[in-house]
Amino acid sequence: MIEDLILKLKKEIIDQLQVEGVAPEDVDPEAPLFGEGGLGFDSIDVLELVVLLDKNYGIKIQGPKEGPKIFYSIKTIAEYILDHQKK
Amino acid sequence: MKFTLIYPKWKKLRGQTEFHLPPHGPIVFAATLPRDVEITFIDENLETIDFNDQADFIGISMMLTNQVKRGWEIADEYRKQGRQVICGGIATMLHAEETSLHADAIFLGEAEGRMEQVLDDFRSNRLRKVYDYLTDFPPIDSVGTARRDILKRQLYNYKGIQMVDLFHASRGCRFDCYPCCMSFVGGRQFRPRPIEKVVEELTTIDNNRLYIVDNSLSQDRAWEKQLFREMIPLKKKWCCHPIEDHDEVLDLAAQAGAWFVYQAIFDTSDFIRNRVKRYHDFGIGVEGTILLGLDHHTEDYIRRLIDFLLEIKLDLAEFAVLTPFPHTRAFADLHGEGRILSYNWNDYTCDKVVFQPKQMSPERLQHLYDEAWKIFYREKPQPYRMFELFKRVIDKEMADGSFQGQPRTQKNRKFGRVKLSS
């Protein structure tokens, strides 16, 4: 189930961030979003992700502490969505 | 007259996001030129210089020490063609003698009311080698609205987000901070612009987000309060250098749209702890500029300083190695003691150690500088912290109805570094 969500998320992120020339299968879901060796996301990308989670999943990121853990990788975002939707 | 005004490129810091703010010095200078002068402005960070242009006169505006060598190259190239070049700006003032070797004229000081004469001299072929107004400040009410119309605004846009516009409400600084050249450049007398002229200029800026570049908003309480009161109805949001630590001033600043401040942090004192807390109490963010390499900085001290930054919940940290810019007290000390290791101005980027530290080797300080960034941003990466600060301004704008949607036309781009699946 999480694999399906990760694939869906990758497509949505590529679409929302208007990333060109990258297919979902090219993106490592466990790679860190930020920093060296990661996907190279910046602050504007995070803003887009927050909008995406709200728009597509009804999830609002509120707590300042949980943010960096949720936005560690695409997989952690997927885990958060699954966890959140169960509740 | 056709006048090409050039802002030379410089190398951005390692790891710095590749966005560019619209420069301020050139547009303030442009406002001092007679309106019949046809100005073409080239920001070389974003555009290529056409050395075959048809300009009559070339101006080179330099702000940073690590811009001067490129500025000199540009001047040399034009002068090889027999064209005349004038250099100005803060870095020209700091490097006047060297710059004069590469230019037909250098302009030192503030240009309001002086350019008619310079252009007359140019037309009559009697340009002076040096126009020295360094300590002869023009009346502050002669400072006009900056010529933002010379900027190609579409260049100052990152992923559809318009960058802040730079703006100044005063000149001069009564402080004389150790690493800073502002007392040399703008004098130690605080010179506030008349509030009505400030407001008049603010209303012309087609941007809700600003960077107020005044040296300090902690120099004249009555003026600060009046300024902020007048700014409240404009609903601008802005970052700036330190704001006076006074209840009413901070409250008015917050109401006037203070978003975050750049605050120098040089020790682990209660003074700094309280200063940051006070901004936060008024809903104002803090980006610390943390200077490493002062004479009392041991390795232990620097490590304690980084822990302290996390403890006081600094929103963002920008680490800088002490850099002895000419005409600062730091330069006088380190040069006098024979401790400057490089006079290559391209090395004066604030992320390279160019002097012999007192408590450790240059290599060790360089290592600690790199470590400082990593440790501070380990738990909460820099892009995430920047997002939080950015969200803060959006929330403020949503609250007062001033939020403007961003055009998405320039958003297309690739991931910075795509990590492929294994």
Can you count the helices of chain B? 14
| CATH C-level category of the largest domain in chain B | Alpha Beta
Going by CATH, the homologous superfamily of chain A would be ACP-like
Briefly note the structural class of the backbone of chain B. Answer: alpha/beta
Count the domains of chain B: 2
Characterize the biggest β-sheet of chain A. none
Helix content of chain A: 40-55%
Query: Spans of chain A with pLDDT under 50 lasting ≥5 residues?
Result: none
Q: Structural class, from helix and strand content of chain A? A: mainly alpha
Strand order of the largest sheet of chain B: 2-1-3-4-5-6
Q: What is the CATH topology of the largest domain in chain B?
A: Transcription Regulator spoIIAA
- How many strands of chain A? 0
Report the CATH architecture of chain A: Orthogonal Bundle
Low-confidence stretches of chain B: 414-422
Number of helices of chain A: 4
CATH architecture of the largest domain in chain B: 2-Layer Sandwich
What Rg of chain A, in angstroms, do the CA atoms define? 12 Å
The domain count of chain A comes to 1
Which percent range describes the beta-strand content of chain B?
15-25%
Instruction: Say what the CATH topology of chain A is.
Output: Non-ribosomal Peptide Synthetase Peptidyl Carrier Protein, Chain A
Order of helices and strands of chain A: HHHH
